[in-house]
Input
Amino acid sequence: MIIAVEGIDGAGKNTLVTALRERIDVDVLAFPRYEVSIHAQLARQALHGQMGDLTESAYAMATLFALDRHGSLDTLAEYVDSDRVILLDRYVASNAAYSLARTGDEAVVDWVAELEFGRLGLPRPDLQVLLDTPPAIASERAINRAAEHADRERDAYERDGGLQRRTWEAYLQLANRRWGSEWVITSEAEDIIRFITS
Output
């Protein structure tokens, strides 16, 4: 079973994933995989102003993040139709939501689905969890996190409050459309545990 935990920066994805991992037997994989993926590393450099005008293209950035996920295809395939559970801290919907928020073009959502689920063959999740953290609270958390940890400097996306608000709205659209799979909007670990154990 593949469960993707989604939300804007500072929404509490890592906190929820950690809480679930302490209570049930699950594996965890976080995207972007900055430690091991050249595509993720290039995206991070771009988000910190080190790759010229690369970030100006929503499609270019989405492609880098998609290729990062594609690098984990063999790992993800092990959880398809399996009793094992993997929690993903961000997945394909992240690309769809941020790309929609950046372009305002609904067609980009279909483009992301075709790229990632189609051409790159990534498995669709069994459940997508949207954390219901309001943008103002998420932004405050992201600012506090950056202040407390020198290695967590906010990137261009995180510093853009308007982008975070639009991304939250895009996520809500995706959840309401049941884009890619079933969705639940919550911050409660119990809601996800019920889904896994039902």
Residues 99 and 178 are 17 Å apart (CA to CA). Strands lie at 2-6, 27-30, 86-89, 127-130, 182-185.
